[in-house]
Fold these 3 entries.
Entry 1:
Amino acid sequence: MLRNIIILVVLLILVGVIIFLDAPKVQKVLDLRNQIKEQNLIFSDKELLLAKVDNLKGAYEENKEDLEKTNYILPSSQDVPNLITQLEGLAFENGLILEEIGLATIEETGAEKAQKARLEEKAKKNYQVLSASLKLIGSYSSFKNFLKAVEDNIRLIDINSVNFKVETKEGIQLFESEVNLNTYYQ
């Protein structure tokens, strides 16, 4: 029995010496286990984030057509060629002659810029204004149809002013109208 106790004590001393001498290695193994747990948590967080990105990408693909329509409503640039084509097409479709078109970006005064900055900060809107002036010739009903077509057009256009002149040529009464409008872009 004494022999068993001595063997047990020697074994305990041996285990103690091994642990004491290899304590840095044991600590290193414990630290590595903790690092593995941390990396597994980071990995699972990244997998969740990746799943969210995939869901967003799927939602984007489903709504891609609607987003493209939004780009027509409020384009990312002035898109002058497309605007001229749209206005010319609307005039032609409604029986008007587009005699002249002028385009200019609207510059703001200091007070207007400050007010716009406050509004933008409030509403987080960021857009620019492109002003256009059109000189159209045609009948009054054609002009009314043109205004309705501009209103129904996909691009956001505000009509600021309309001026009329009536001319009679060869017994035909023609309206010469000058239209000032604003269109917007990002």
Note: The domain at 73-185 is CATH 3.30.70.60 (Alpha-Beta Plaits).
Entry 2:
Amino acid sequence: MKKIVIIVAGGRGKRMQSEIPKQFLPLYGFPILMHTIKKFFRYDNSIYIIVVLPKIQIKTWNKFCNDYKFDYKHEIVRGGITRFHSVKNGLAKISGNDLLIAIHDGVRPLVSLETIRGCFKKAESEGNAIPVIDIPESIRKIENGKNHPVDRSKHKLIQTPQVFHSDMLLKAYEQEYDSKFTDDASVVESLGFSINLVEGNKENIKITTPADLVIAESYLKSTQYYYI
């Protein structure tokens, strides 16, 4: 089946305390978003990549690609007012049937090839797949002004890429936006589909704060991983 990935990169850098949008911040010598794009090419160099960016950031991204001589083929799409609408804009560029479509956060450059491979494999056989990891710490639930411990083994942390058969995903995104849609799995699940879980990788953090950037930089240096 043909594989497509929509990389959603709509950050503005507020929690990063930076004027530079977080997906453009330098990581190991290159903007974060370039690492993310390259990872999917390393998985499958025939994959079709769509990058969704806010309109005001497209010119800057094109300049970065020129400055860094970043020639990995991808299509740019303008983002929407929410992540839901940004994904929907990306989906509007897709044609054809019997496709596998992944949705991935632009600021998750440390996703492993094993995680990507596992998600696509499961989605091809079962219709969809999302990566998850165990919660390593104790958690408590706050309810009615009180709190109590929760069995963490019954909860998971959700990551991307979230991969779906095209028929399922396109149908789900015909719905009107709902604030309860926290990710693509929740959009699909609202139509009654069951969601399949696969093992993610703990390094696959979403870089949103300065501390996250330090962690990602340290990881790349310690593993001497060659991204670009």
Note: The mean pLDDT is 94.
Entry 3:
Amino acid sequence: MTDYAKLERQQVAELLLAVGPDQPTICEGWTTRDLAAHLVVRERRADAMAGGVIKALAGHGEKVRRAKAARPFAEIVAEIRNPPWWSPVSNRLTDELANTAEFFIHHEDIRRAQPQWEPRELPPGEEEAIWKAAKMTARLGLRKLRLPVLIRTPRFADLEIGTSETEPPRVMLQGDPGEIALFLSGRQRVARVEVRGHDDATELIRQAKLGL
């Protein structure tokens, strides 16, 4: 079985070194250095990452990330390559589920900020792993919109969120699993996803602040 999380991790590290620390990314306001620091802090500092869900800790998390970003770039990338065995998101039990989609998305954050990018053709096994994570993101992230959504991919069963006999889908998202994952993580601008449905609903989902 291919370990796609480890594969994406190494590809991200190689791309970071290839483009350097000062390139733009899809993450607004972040350079490649900022993104690299985020990846390291995410795996090593649970106290800092708590700021993503606890507003009172947001300042602390950003302070930790900025401190990491100030370190030599090659050192930061080396830490990305070699996560600690005790990391809550990168140990043997959680790595594939927690990191395949995470590193795929951040890989694309770098790639798609560069000129003349094109989507990658992913192995079927990696698409399956990303789709598994995307379904979880969809169930948690789309419910806050209170919008019945149908998600359709070429290879996997349709996923319906918030639909019922009296609430048919008002929006359909269609695309490859990686593109759906990017869309659901808030990268609507660069995700190659077809969005169809009621005009007001499609506009809402295009502009929504998606992600967990």
Note: The longest helix spans residues 124-141.
